[in-house]
Specification:
heterotrimer; A alpha+beta (about 750); B alpha+beta (about 300); C alpha+beta (about 160); A: about 750 residues; alpha+beta; Aldehyde Oxidoreductase, domain 3; Aldehyde Oxidoreductase, domain 4; seven-stranded mixed beta sheet; B: about 300 residues; Uridine Diphospho-n-acetylenolpyruvylglucosamine Reductase, domain 3; 12 strands; about 20% strand; globular
Chain lengths: ~750, ~300, ~160
């Protein structure tokens, strides 16, 4: 690589971000703009009997009011469960659900206007505990009418390969354990915000803090009954997502609708409490899991039964249900595998996709059980894992296609760096090491909405100024995808990065990209960007070859020069641009990415399919105070196989951020509920680790050079969260001899177990 | 309609308070005030900004004694060399509050008079309305305890237990004049009316009579920053051999146990603490655990002094 | 409403504000100085940190009326793009920011911190930034950037 690919590269928007110049959604203002005030339900489950708008309607400053029946078309990220409405229609399903909205001249006037809307409710039986949702209930009590068997079960996902239960019976070593995971939420720093502008040409522009402009585009069209060619969705600078901005949202529909209704720009910005209420975080989960192995520690079978608490609406829940099971197919070879996941509807804010989607909780369970089995058999937990890893270029039992696989090198690296062999099991009481591994998809091989288009298209434009502009629908949410686009163009064309700029995430000017979810962007958009800029290079080479009488295939692009090795051609980039554009002017080349056809032909075979998988192994060191139960995670050694680090600075950043987020779920974060409403909807009480709570990190990037990834790259944004939690859980066992089966691992739980044991 | 005043003298401030009786709020460092306002926990007409009272900013160490103006910030306390030297207990307690930047604004007077907290009370208006209002607001019973007719909100000051064990007194000014009272006297075991002798009064100064011969401090919290306390224990032994152990975060007011060290036993201390702390499930740490930690902390302190 | 005269980044602005209004809202909504971010609006995240009379203060907890007669410096007052403060420069260089939303607050906390503590250890910096919530970076690269900035400022 002669250009910036593979070199630590500061973000192209870094200066704007450190100077406060970067524009996030709430930072925009438009002339004559209105502000949204929302009426939210105080009930978890209730029928709407009457909405009295009369007082609000008379309020000075209120320009428009909207209620659910005006835009009753349902929407949702998955076309199989479009169960949400912009505002509640007929009934409310969680505390905080939006029932009505006003647009007013100021934020204060909007709040006052909203307070004057009086809603009468008739409470219905509330389902807060997912166990209650598994039982048959009255027809009127069903949260959604479409659920089957008279129960509040949204989805049952089940796959079984090769009769795992029989193999488990025969296994000489077997563990069956129960786990419980609290719900956690993304807690990105930028609250949800949306601005909608109804333009004079009867088009709608929506500026929104979204990870998925494309799906927002589609859902806006559906709900507002406005053709797609009249909608533009733009994502400006975005303050973190982690999956929490990867659905189309009710407030986006409402804001757009109010803009259409008033023909004025309208802005909606959430408070922090509203962000918590909106949630879409990781599902609270209970899980029974059995894993068996033979006398040598080879895994014989795995079977698990999972209940995930979906909250009031579907979101990504069907995918989450499958991911809880199918993403147990790696990094270990497990040929006898079964799972059932039931996703319940409950009267709480909905859960959805969050970093490591669907696989974080089962990963904790399996890694803890493997640790237990290693102890049962009497072999080192690292050795047991080494014996069971999948190889490269293989198929899993559910026909996930594994290509490159650096998991062995990952584990060897952290084992060596942490001095595991000399320290594991030998540290003084109260101090311990724990190991865990993981793997994750590099983008879902299937689009959310089936269609015949590529999953992403990138245009590269060259003009007289010598500049390349990369047009991509990819959404930079802080992971640095804009920088990757520039790096790739600079690499392919041998030009400095300042010759490349981006036009991104604007559904009017940029070609479709499906969005920043499922760790797909570097892999898919990277491939498309590479193809687009290769094509620019080929076009240029063709023209230059003709004019300079050299062979196109001998022409090299490097260091802002275009040349042949033998020296017959040696011209500056700008001269090459002029030759290429002569007689035709500026030109655009496109690249695209379509995942190869993958997977089996059984129902559910599509879940978890990806063109490539990342792998990782982490070791944590903890100190546990057995008198107070307090745990201090002191150091984490992390090794992650991302194929090839296109921007090592960004890859390290993703791994370090994953450690922080994983630590939070492991030891301190949980969504607490009282009477169905969140009782810790703020950063005092939803306890995210701060700088002083975060361990020392030793990060190793392992490069397995994937055959299909751009320059060999695979994902790094989500995979690194998986090993964090179980490595901490296993380290606590090494420290004080207890197994933590419930997350977060707070001091009270540790103290109970320590006392039970002693 | 609301009004903002910034009086230059105490007399002026007290007179404003009298003019707006029950409809004003004193604004000190103000680090909690805006949160209460956003949550609609206060809606006072007049803001009386006390930052113009220039004689409340001083730290004066005099031999082994200390006088602090009420407007001295928590950060000033943690970084003042004389406090670090004579009263490291106080420096540590102040450093355990909130975050570094908040400590640069938050005052010692404000931390001593911090409002009691409860998981059912420190919430937005919409939240409180949805869950049903507690007796501290407009309801009739306590929601935490499932309907008792008493409020158990917690005092969460970290500096109060430290200063109480240092036998501090506070200067309190009212329109009737100036009074110096023991700090512990301003706290009442009542979740709603948790301060006393403070009606329309301004706390202007804190005085610590002498340097202790021994001290101990520990704050229970899940994170090493930001969190309000789940249990704070401060302990000090004075030159006369009097031991003072003060627990906070576990009852409506700081709980002081005061006994000559010679007469103190761990069992007696623990029994007394458990009896006096009216701890209910109004913190994010589980009740049982917080109660257990009272024993653990007291034992931990005891281990440091029993051999001395 | 109160009419107040504010000195912001060396320039005098006169605005009408509500007595309860925070300086964060005044800056963002009335003066279009949107570099200071509103993340939690209750003093828990440090994103709205600014300097008032050289002292770091949380904008979401500070009524605008209390800023009268004082020198307010916001992220916009630290530098223009060409002459980044060493803290800013190293945050960019080290990858000490991802989504960037907490970053203005980190800059405005780290700059006065380094003035008071010119030779901080890694643990000192962790402590100094312990009121700044970053959900992206895991803090490591932020801390390294501040350490590098300290070293540059000392040479």
């Amino acid at each position: 690589m002669s250009g910036p690919i593979g070199k630590p590269t500061p973000y192209i928007d870094g200066v704007d971000k450190v100077t406060g110049q970067a524009m996030y959604t709430d930072d925009f203002r438009f002339p004559n703009m209105l502000y949204v005030g929302l009426v939210r339900s105080p009930h978890a489950h209730a029928r709407i009997k009457h909405i009295d708008l009369s007082a609000a309607g008379k309020d000075p400053g209120v320009a428009a009011i909207a209620v659910g029946t005006e835009i009753p078309i349902s929407f949702g990220i998955l076309p199989i469960s479009p169960d949400e409405n912009a505002m509640a229609v007929e009934k409310v399903r969680y505390v905080g659900e939006i029932v009505a909205a006003v647009a007013a001249e100021t934020v204060e006037a909007a709040q006052k206007g909203a307070e004057k809307i009086i809603v009468e409710y008739e409470p219905i039986r509330e389902f807060i505990d997912p166990e209650d949702s598994l039982e048959i209930c009255g027809k009127d009590e069903q949260i959604h009418s479409h659920t089957k068997e008279g129960k509040n079960i949204h989805k049952t996902a089940e796959l079984r390969f090769n009769e795992p239960e029989k193999a488990l019976e025969k296994s000489p070593f077997k563990r069956t354990e129960s786990f419980k995971f609290a719900g956690v939420t993304h807690a990105f720093t930028e609250p949800h915000a949306t601005i909608a502008i109804w333009n004079g040409d009867e088009t709608l522009t929506v500026i929104s803090a979204t990870q998925v402009p494309h799906y927002l585009h589609r859902n806006l069209s559906k709900v507002l009954e406005l053709p797609m060619h009249r909608i533009q969705v733009k994502k400006p600078a975005l303050g973190g997502g982690f999956g929490g901005k990867s659905d189309p949202f009710a407030h986006e529909m409402i804001t757009a609708y109010l803009s259409m209704k008033t023909k004025r720009p309208v802005k909606c910005t959430f408070t922090r409490e509203e962000v918590f209420i909106t949630n879409h975080g990781r599902h609270p989960t209970t899980m029974d899991m059995s894993v068996g192995c033979d006398n040598d520690g080879i895994i014989t079978a795995l079977d698990t039964d999972v209940i995930i608490d979906g909250g009031a609406y579907g979101s990504f829940g069907v995918v989450t249900s499958y991911y809880n099971g199918v993403l147990l197919q790696g990094p270990y070879k497990i040929d006898k595998l079964g799972f059932r996941t039931r996703r319940t509807y409950t009267n709480k804010p909905q859960c959805g996709a969050m970093r490591g989607h669907g696989a974080v909780n089962p990963r904790y369970a399996v890694e803890v059980i493997l640790d237990m089995l290693a102890h049962d058999i009497g072999i080192d937990p690292c050795d047991l894992r080494m014996k069971n890893f999948l190889s490269e270029n293989t198929l899993t039992v559910g026909q996930l296609r594994i290509t490159s696989n650096g998991v062995r090198e990952c584990l060897e690296t952290v084992r060596e760096k942490s001095d595991w062999n000399n320290r594991y099991g030998k540290l003084p009481y109260g101090r311990g090491l724990g190991v865990a591994c993981g793997f994750f998809i590099s983008g879902s091989a299937l689009p959310i909405i089936w269609n015949r288009y590529p999953q992403t298209v990138v245009h590269a434009k060259l003009d007289f100024d010598g500049r390349i502009v990369m047009f991509s629908g990819a959404s930079d949410i802080g992971q640095g995808s804009d920088t990757i686009l520039v790096q790739i163009a600079a690499e392919e064309l041998g030009i400095p990065m300042d010759f490349v700029q981006v036009e991104v995430a604007d559904t009017k000017t940029t070609p479709v990209d499906l969005g920043s979810y499922s760790s797909r962007v570097t892999f898919m958009v990277g491939n498309a960007a590479k193809m687009a800029t290769e094509r620019i290079r080929n076009e240029m080479a063709k023209a230059i070859a003709k004019e300079k009488s050299v062979s196109a295939k001998d022409i090299l692009f490097r260091d802002k020069k275009i040349f042949t090795k033998d020296g017959t051609l040696d011209i500056a980039w700008e001269d090459g641009v002029e030759i290429a554009m002569a007689g035709r002017g500026a030109f655009v080349e496109s690249g695209y990415y379509i995942s190869p056809k993958l997977g089996g032909d059984f129902k559910g075979s599509g879940a978890g399919l990806s063109p490539a998988y990342s792998f990782g192994a982490f070791i944590s060191e903890v100190a546990v105070n057995p008198d107070t139960g307090e745990v201090n995670v002191e150091k984490i050694w992390a090794a992650h196989d991302c194929g090839k680090a296109l921007n090592p600075l960004a890859v390290e950043g993703q791994i370090e951020g994953s450690i922080h987020m994983g630590l939070g779920q492991a030891v301190s974060e949980d969504m607490r509920f009282v009477q169905g409403q969140i009782m810790n909807a703020n950063f005092f009480d939803y306890r995210i680790p701060y700088s002083v709570d975060t361990p020392e990190m030793d990060v190793s990037i392992i490069e397995s050079n994937d055959g299909e990834g751009p320059y060999g790259a695979k994902e790094a944004g989500e995979g690194p969260i998986h090993p964090v939690l179980p490595s901490i859980g296993n380290a606590i066992h090494d420290a004080v001899g207890i197994r933590m089966m419930e997350l977060p691992i707070t001091p009270d739980k540790i103290l109970n177990k320590v006392r039970e044991k002693n | 309609m609301s009004y903002y005043f910034k009086p230059a003298t105490i007399t002026e401030a007290l007179s404003l308070a009298s003019d707006y009786s029950n409809n004003y709020v004193y604004f000190g460092g103000g680090t909690d005030l805006q949160i209460y306002r956003k949550q609609k926990l206060i809606k006072d007409e007049a803001i009386i900004d006390l930052s113009g009272l220039t004689d409340t900013y001083r730290i004066q160490a005099d031999g082994n004694a200390l006088r602090l103006g009420a407007f001295v910030t928590l950060d000033d306390i943690t970084s003042a060399p004389e406090i670090q030297k004579l009263f490291p207990l106080l420096a540590e307690a102040a450093a355990s509050v909130a975050t570094p930047v908040i400590r640069k604004t938050a005052t010692i007077g404000g931390n001593l008079l911090v409002n009691n907290r409860c998981t059912f009370y420190n919430q937005s208006k919409e939240w409180r309305d949805a869950v049903g209002s507690c007796m501290r607001e407009v309801g009739a019973t306590c929601l935490v305890t499932g309907g008792k007719d008493k409020c158990f909100s917690r005092n969460v000051s970290d500096t109060a237990p430290a200063l109480i064990t240092l036998n501090a007194t506070v200067t309190v000014q009212t329109q009737k004049g100036e009074d110096e009272i023991p700090l512990k006297e301003i706290y009442a075991p009542d979740g709603i009316k948790y301060h006393q002798h403070m009606d329309d009064a301004i706390l202007t100064a804190i005085r610590v009579p002498e340097k202790p011969v021994d001290w101990w401090f520990k704050k229970l919290r899940l994170r090493k920053t930001l969190d309000f306390t789940s249990l704070t224990v401060a302990a000090a032994i004075d030159t006369a051999g009097m031991a003072r152990v003060c627990l906070n975060g576990v009852s409506m007011s700081p709980i002081l146990i005061e006994k000559p060290i010679a007469d103190l036993t761990l069992e007696g201390l623990t029994r007394s603490a458990r009896k006096n702390c009216k701890t209910v499930d109004n913190d994010l740490m589980p009740l049982k655990y917080r109660r257990e930690m009272i024993n653990v902390y007291l034992n931990e302190w005891w281990q440091t002094v029993k051999d001395k | 409403m109160e009419k107040v005269q504010l000195n912001i980044n060396g320039f005098t602005r006169i605005v009408l504000v509500d007595p309860h209004e925070t300086i964060l809202d005044t800056l963002r909504n009335r003066l279009f100085l949107t570099g200071t971010k509103k993340c939690c609006d209750e003093g828990t995240c440090g994103s709205c940190t600014m300097l008032i009379d050289s002292k770091p203060v949380l904008g979401c907890l500070t009524p605008t009326v209390r800023c009268v007669g004082k020198e307010i410096v916001t992220i916009e007052g630290i530098s223009s793009g060409d002459d980044l403060h060493p803290v800013q420069k190293h945050l960019v260089k080290n990858g000490g920011m991802q989504c960037g939303f907490c970053t203005p607050g980190v800059v405005m906390t780290a700059i006065p911190y380094l003035e008071e503590n010119p030779n901080p250890s890694v643990n000192d910096i962790k402590e100094g930034l312990s009121g700044n919530l970053c959900r992206c970076t895991g803090y490591k690269k932020i801390i390294e950037a501040v350490k590098d900035a300290a070293e540059e400022l000392n040479t």
